[in-house]
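Protein record
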Amino acid sequence: MRERIELHLNEAPKLHNPILIAGLPDSGRVAKIVLDHLIKNLNAVPLGYLHSDYLPPRVLLKSDGTPELM
C-alpha cells in the first residue's frame, strides 16, 4: 500500500502577519476543543485540513452506537 498525505485547502483570504495553529489527533480530543476555542475567540478562519496515512485512524462512537471515522 502506498502511504499518502493529502492537504485540503479552502480559498485563502489575504493574510497579514499570519499565525499557523495546528492540532493533531489525540485520545481526549483536546486539540479539537482547543482549536474550536481559538477559532471562535480569535475570529480565526480555518484554511484547510490534512489527512495522512502516517497518523493513526480515529473512530468516534455516535450516540446510537455506530462508529464514524474521524
